[in-house]
Design brief:
This protein is mainly alpha-helical. The protein contains five helices and no strands. The two termini are 20 Å apart.
Length: 132
């Protein structure tokens, strides 16, 4: 029971970090925005509309997967793992990234939280709580 409470709190923390990442990206300094614009020489930078659509789809699927995980629905495990791997591949293809101090902090905290959720999902007794 205690492990389920920790798991649910990690999911809520992951959601809160996601909200903070979105907020910090809206208020990033102009200097960082200008540098990011100059660095757009990645593999997928020529397809900005497509990357924006993919980003939005991944974002909303991530919100759905957090909801499914919170309610212990089996498909949430596979969806969450798929989104983490897809996000890593998408970030790799996106090229160089520059973060403000807040965005960098939230990104690292989000990675730590996602790692903790994945460990609990696949290597702890919490995996037995997911029923089809």
């Amino acid at each position: 029971m205690e492990l389920e409470k920790i798991f649910k709190n990690l999911i809520l923390l992951d959601f809160a970090i996601l909200v903070l990442i979105v907020i910090s990206s809206m208020y990033e300094p102009n200097d960082i925005s200008q540098i990011k614009h100059q660095l757009e020489k990645s593999f997928i930078s020529n397809y900005s509309n497509l990357t924006n659509i993919i980003s939005l789809v991944l974002f909303f699927l991530y919100l759905i997967s957090l909801n499914l995980l919170y309610r212990f629905i089996m498909i949430g495990k596979q969806l969450y793992l798929f989104l983490i791997v897809s996000g890593l591949i998408f970030n790799f293809l996106n090229g160089s990234v520059i973060y403000s101090s807040y965005s960098g902090l939230f990104d690292q905290l989000g990675g730590i939280t996602s790692g903790a959720i994945l460990i609990l999902l696949f290597f702890s007794p919490i995996k037995e709580s997911f029923k089809k």
